[in-house]
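User: Last request for today: this protein with manganese (II) ion, please.
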Amino acid sequence: MSNVETQPQETVCPTTPPTDGVEVLEPREVPLGGPRAMTVRRTLPQRQRSLIGAWCFADHYGPDDVGATGGMDVPPHPHCGLQTVSWLFTGEIEHRDSLGSHALVRPGAVNLMTGGLGIAHSEVSTPGTTVLHGAQLWVALPEAHRNAPKDFQHHEPRPIRLDGATLSVFLGSLAGQTSPVETFTPLLGAEVTVDAGASVELALDPAYEHGVLADSEGLTVNGTATARSAMAYLPTHTHTLVLANTSDEPARALLLGGPPFDEEIVMWWNFVGRSHEDIVAARDEWMAHSARFGEVEGYAGDVQHLPAPPIPAVRIRPRGNAARHTRDS
Ligand code: MN
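Assistant: Here's the final one, the structure of the complex with manganese (II) ion:
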């Protein structure tokens, strides 16, 4: 979806040193505009930690009564420097993009859209959708691929049963399951549903850092209690995840991971770049209807080209984080 904050701040996302143990990233509520509109709960980026692997943006939303909020209706809007990863728990969203893709986003299937140099898309919940519940995630592209061409991949992983849980691996590899979806840095994305009162043990790649985005109450992550919509961060050199469900209903989480992303990025609105100039150029080209982003065909709403918010008056400067070391390489 689009970041529909009316006055988005330009955000420098420096690399952040790992912690010794589990670090809980608390969500903050972000209204998606309009008096009735749905709110999302954002855990990435935040001041404490901007990235987990190349995962740079995480919004958790719902279950949302579409009758009360009107659901999702995001007009054609641009992205660059990133991939969007859409994962639904409930509902259905119609996706159209400037590559010509037309897809229905449904629970249990991942849709990964690449907006390297640039892409545009619209997202509308379908008329039959009464409840919307899911996550919108973004992945930053590494320097070598940040101008990658438009692409759209769809994959429906086969859920498997483990002792105490059901697992769907939609990106990367876990528990012997591997997703065929191609990414530009090593990534893990999986949905784990732990049985009531049970726990599951998963072997992790110790070269990865991980985040567990809790979709339910009652989950503990390697012994640390995690409220719904929070993200429990696990540093590199973590070999095992024990996800325990203390509730008497099944509890679900998304497990995200990847090797630490060692480039500092700049995020603003729906763009990822390396500098303020990158962001200004992307905004100018979107507003000029440049072929860089292209046009979305078939969106039924009135707004055919979502205007970008004004660029912030204050020019952002890199933070000079000590952990930043390969930005210029
Ligand atoms: Mn979007």
